[in-house]
Specification:
globular; Dehydroquinate synthase-like, alpha domain; 12 helices; binds adenosine-5'-diphosphate; Rossmann fold; two-stranded antiparallel sheet; binds zinc ion; 2 domains
C-alpha cells in the first residue's frame, strides 16, 4: 500500500491518495471520516464499471453506515455533456442529496470528470472522493482536482478546479481493464518518466510490456502531486504535464477523436516532441527512438508516416496565445522544458522531426 499527500504550497489543506489492492472492498472503512451520518452518499459510475465493482463498493459503504444511492451513466466520452450533467443533477435531487452529503466517483476519467463537476457545483459544492478504475485515471485524471465536461467548442471546455477529499486507487480493478485502455494509460506513465524521472523511465524499459504495479502508479501520482502542489490552478509548471499532448491533441482533432485513444495519440505526440527537440538541438540524439521503443513495447502505435500536416491541427487552445504555442520539450529523459514556437514555424519543425524519426527508425 502506498500513501501520498497532495498539498499546495500557496493554499492550506491537503488530501490523501492511497494506492493498493483491495481498496474498493475497503472503501467504507477507508472513507469512514468522510461518510455523512445524516445525509446521502451517492456513488456515480458508468454501466461497465458499476456492473463489475458497484456491489462491492455499495456493500462496503453500507457496512460503514452510509445511506447510499447510485447514479449510473452510459460509458464513454460521449457522456461528458451538459445534458448528462443535468441528468445527474436531476437524480441528485430525486435522491435527496444535500450539502452535507458525499459524492463518490467510481470509474475512469469520464466518470471522474463529470461526477467531479457535478459534486463541485451541486448546492455550491459537496465533497467528492475519487475511486479511479482505469490506469489513466489512477495516474492522471483523479489527481489534481480538475473537473470538466465537453462542449461543441471542444473537450473539457467547462469545468472547475475542485480538490477531491480523497483518492483511493484500487490496483485490482486494472485486471478487468480492456488492453487498449491499459496501454492508453501506459502512455501517461511513460510521460511521467520522460518529463520528471529517468529512474522511472528506466524501470519501464526493463518492464518489457509487463504490467505497471503499485510502485509505478505511486511514482506517477507522486510526480503529479508535486507538480500540482506548486501549480494547482494550471498557470505555470503544470504545463509540463502536457508533454506529447500538443501533437497528441492535433492527432485526436485530425481524426475527430475516433481513430486513436487519448493515450495512443499522446504516445505518438511524445515521439514527435522528442524529435522536434532533437532537430532543435535541445534533446539528445536518439531520445525519440528510445521513447518510440518503449511505447511500441507497451502496444502503443508509432507516429504516422506523414506528420507534416499536423501543424494545421495544433489548436489555439487554453495554453496558446494568438501567434504562438508553448511546446513541452525535454532536455533529456526526466527533464522537461517549455519552448515557445510561432504557429508559422510548426510546419517546418514537424518536417525536420519527421526526418529525425525516419533516420532513427532505420538504425
Ligand atoms: P479514461 O479513464 O481513459 O478517461 P473512461 O472513463 O472512458 O476512460 O473508461 C474507459 C472505458 O473502460 C469505459 O468504457 C469504462 O466503462 C471502462 N472501464 C473503466 N474502468 C474499468 C475497469 N476497471 N474494468 C473494465 N472496464 C473499465
Ligand atoms: Zn493526457
Amino acid at each position: 500500500m502506498e500513501l501520498l499527500k497532495v498539498e499546495n504550497t500557496a493554499r492550506a489543506g491537503s488530501y490523501d491518495i492511497e494506492i493498493g489492492s483491495g481498496l474498493i472492498a475497503a472503501a467504507g472503512e477507508k472513507l469512514g471520516r468522510f461518510i455523512p451520518k445524516h445525509d446521502k452518499t451517492v456513488v456515480v459510475s458508468d454501466e461497465n464499471v458499476f456492473r463489475l465493482y458497484g456491489e462491492r463498493v455499495m456493500a462496503s459503504l453500507a457496512k460503514a453506515g452510509a445511506d447510499t444511492a447510485a447514479v449510473i451513466i452510459p460509458p464513454g466520452e460521449a457522456s461528458k455533456t451538459l445534458k448528462q450533467l443535468e441528468a445527474i443533477y436531476d437524480l441528485f435531487g430525486d435522491i435527496g442529496l444535500k450539502r452535507g452529503g458525499l459524492v463518490i466517483a467510481l470509474g475512469g476519467g469520464v466518470v471522474g470528470d463529470i461526477a467531479g463537476l457535478a459534486a463541485a457545483t451541486w448546492m455550491r459544492g459537496v465533497p467528492l472522493v475519487q475511486l479511479p478504475t482505469t490506469l489513466l485515471a489512477q495516474v492522471d485524471s483523479s489527481v489534481g482536482g480538475k473537473t470538466a465536461i465537453d462542449t461543441s467548442s471542444g473537450k473539457n471546455m467547462v469545468g472547475v478546479f475542485s480538490r477531491p477529499a480523497a483518492v483511493l486507487a484500487d490496483t485490482e480493478t486494472l485486471s478487468t481493464l480492456p488492453l487498449r485502455e491499459y496501454a492508453s494509460g501506459m502512455a501517461e506513465v511513460i510521460k511521467y518518466g520522460a518529463i520528471a524521472s529517468a529512474g522511472l523511465f528506466e524501470r519501464l524499459e526493463s518492464l518489457n510490456a509487463g504490467a505497471a504495479g503499485e510502485d509505478i502508479i505511486a511514482a506517477c501520482c507522486g510526480i503529479k502531486a508535486d507538480i500540482v502542489s506548486e501549480d494547482e490552478f494550471d498557470t505555470g509548471k503544470r504545463q509540463l504535464l502536457n508533454f506529447g499532448h500538443t501533437f497528441g491533441h492535433a492527432l485526436e482533432t485530425k481524426y475527430g477523436f475516433t481513430k486513436y485513444t487519448h493515450g495512443e495519440a499522446v504516445a505518438q505526440g511524445m515521439v514527435i516532441a522528442a524529435a522536434v527537440g532533437e532537430s532543435a538541438g535541445i534533446t539528445p540524439k536518439g531520445t525519440a527512438d528510445r521513447i518510440l521503443r518503449l511505447t511500441l513495447a507497451q502496444g502503443l502505435p508509432a507516429p504516422e508516416t506523414d506528420i507534416t500536416d499536423l501543424a494545421r491541427y495544433i489548436s489555439h487552445d487554453k495554453k496558446s496565445t494568438a501567434d504562438s504555442v508553448s511546446l513541452v520539450l525535454i532536455r533529456g529523459i526526466g527533464a522537461a522544458v517549455i519552448h515557445n514556437v510561432k504557429f508559422g514555424e510548426a510546419g517546418a519543425l514537424l518536417a525536420s522531426a519527421q526526418t529525425v524519426i525516419r533516420s532513427e527508425a532505420k538504425r
